[in-house]
Amino acid sequence: MKKILVPVDFSGHTGITCAYALEYLRHTGGEIRLFHTYFDQIIISDTNFPDSVSMTTLYNEGLLKEVIALAERNMNDLKAELEEKIRAGALQGITITSVLTGGEIEQELKELCLSYHPDLVIMGTTGKGKNINVWGQVSTYIITHAKVPVMTVPDIESFRGFSNIMFAADLTDWNTHSVKVILDTFAGIPFHLYCVHFLLKGKTTDETEKMKALGDRFAEEQVKGQLSFELAEVTEDNQKAIDRFAAQHSVSLIAFQPYKHGFLYNLFTKNITKKNLFATNIPLLAIPAV
Fold first, then answer.
1. Helix (H, G, I), strand (E, B), or coil: what is residue 95?
2. Model's pTM, two decimal places?
3. 97-133: per-residue pLDDT in tens?
């Protein structure tokens, strides 16, 4: 059974994130575990009267109860909404569970990943108020520390499918592992995987040999038409090269393997960074290192 962990903050972005989880499990069945952490670091001031009860303490305790109660209502509403979509779509074998905690979201998520052992984490790149600086930092942290694939979904209007996936190959030895993880992650879901390496104009000999060697490791999948391996030359602006390939191949998801020494750096060439990936406004799939 597939297990999908979906961190939520009940913002408008939550709907599309959950839609990706439902559509993923449409083909395989499994469990969606919704996760939310409420802010419980409410400052409680000391009283000047040690033998009495501080009004500030009472106020903050009451506020904390309200925060928890609101989180519980929001979670119950979200679960009910997803369960209705499961019934309306006649989706089979999908269950919804939830976890509510207080504390630092990054640490709570990391610990839940270690205890729950999800097959995939799906989360948004923006949170309430479209705050990419806060929610984006959380997704970056989880990508860095999780031992499972992490899918980050931008603020898009609807589910775009998994039919055409692009893997950003840097032609290192780790690419074989990454391709295997992608194939396993989407087993049972119809899709085509484009393994592509973007290279600077004129630098082709070494890259051609490395790409051929990578493709030879997946000869059976190529025969089935499930994989293709391509070199894409960057002759102009890096962003235009990525956007052009994505448009020509109707790419709906970009997979990559981040590196701890520089998140999203050196993915295609030395000049292409995380800015290029986020600018595509296409969901991303981070593959954990071995």
1. strand
2. 0.84
3. 999 998 788 888 888 888 999 999 998 876 554 444 4
